[in-house]
């Protein structure tokens, strides 16, 4: 599974990072309003803060978002909405948004789908193709002495569901609500994680090439540039060779 496929693309790195700061500040705000400002008692907030720290988001930004959510600034009523649909080649796409204006966001997301060879569908039209999972990512270079069997054994003993291995990382899958429990248990064994988050994982993936691949990457870029879009989950993959061809 290529969880980092689109986040690793170069070129717009600085702008993408700034966009991510904006999106995560909004997520922290929403989670703090929903469950309170204490991350130890608020799983959603703890996960959002962990994601922010993973991309070196300044502590001031995190604290400002929490303070704003708990009465330290103008309140904004954000709503979490998923917009489901299809991309070029019929691939499945789920767009997670946090918005204070449902009409604006729906129009923007629909436009991105339509202009790049896709179409937005009804709620539930593709979500059945995905499973919600917690994902803990370990950088293999940071733990060169570890072997796959050891990581698998310790992960399962900690309560994980599965382990996915690539050349760069170990990716531990958990039930969404067990993410922090598994993470905490593995940290007692000395593990550190490059990311810790809850995501929608496709049950099966589709390899795309050529014009479809190019349209889909442009669609992902357009979603990334939209402040209301928090994340995008898809069931397509693009080979390294095809990525190199597209550039």
Helix-strand blueprint:
Blueprint: H1 13-35, H2 43-54, H3 59-69, E1 79-86, E2 92-99, H4 102-115, E3 119-120, E4 130-139, H5 148-157, E5 162-165, E6 169-174, H6 179-187, E7 195-202, E8 206-207, H7 210-225, E9 229-234, E10 236-237, H8 240-246
Describe this structure in words.
The protein has eight helices and ten strands. The protein has 247 residues and is of the alpha+beta class. The protein is 41% helix and 23% strand. The strands form three sheets. It has a four-stranded antiparallel beta sheet with strand order 3-1-2-9. A four-stranded antiparallel beta sheet has the order 5-6-4-7. Helix 1 (13-35) runs antiparallel to helix 2 and helix 1 runs parallel beside helix 3. Strand 1 and strand 2 form a beta hairpin.
Q: Would you summarize the structure shown here?
A:
With 247 residues, this protein is α+β, with helices and mostly antiparallel strands.
Q: Could you spell the SSE succession in H and E letters?
A: HHHEEHEEHEEHEEHEEH
Catalogue the unreliable spans.
1-11
The gross shape turns out to be globular
Number of strands: 10
Structural class of the secondary elements? alpha+beta
The oligomeric state of the chains shown is single chain
Termini gap = 21 Å
How would you state the average pLDDT, rounded? Answer: 87
β content, as a range? 15-25%
- Please, how many helices? 8
Estimate the helix proportion, in percent. 40-55%
- With strands numbered from the N-terminus, the spatial order across the biggest sheet is 3-1-2-9
Main pleated-sheet profile:
4 strands, antiparallel
Radius of gyration over alpha carbons?
18 Å
């Amino acid at each position: 599974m290529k969880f980092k496929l689109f986040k690793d693309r170069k070129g717009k790195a600085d702008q993408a990072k700034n966009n991510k700061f904006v999106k995560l500040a909004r997520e922290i705000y929403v989670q703090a309003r929903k469950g309170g400002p204490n991350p130890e008692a608020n799983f959603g907030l703890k996960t959002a803060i962990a994601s922010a720290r993973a991309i070196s988001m300044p502590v001031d930004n995190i604290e400002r978002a929490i303070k704003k959510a708990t009465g330290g600034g103008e309140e904004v009523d954000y709503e979490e909405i998923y917009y489901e649909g299809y991309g070029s080649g019929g691939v499945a796409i789920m767009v997670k948004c946090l918005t204070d204006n449902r009409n604006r966001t729906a129009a923007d997301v629909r436009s991105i789908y339509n202009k790049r060879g896709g179409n937005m569908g009804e709620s539930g039209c593709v979500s059945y193709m995905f499973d919600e999972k917690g994902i803990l990512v370990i950088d293999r270079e940071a733990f060169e002495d570890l072997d796959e069997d050891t990581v698998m054994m310790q992960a399962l003993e900690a309560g994980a569901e599965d382990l996915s291995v690539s050349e760069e990382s170990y990716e531990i899958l958990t039930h969404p609500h067990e993410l922090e429990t598994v993470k905490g248990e593995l940290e007692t064994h000395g593990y550190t994680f490059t990311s810790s988050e809850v995501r929608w994982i496709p049950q099966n993936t589709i390899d795309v090439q050529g014009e479809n691949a190019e349209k889909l990457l442009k669609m992902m870029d357009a979603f990334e540039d939209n402040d209301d879009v928090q994340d995008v989950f898809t069931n397509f993959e693009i080979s390294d060779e095809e990525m190199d061809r597209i550039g």
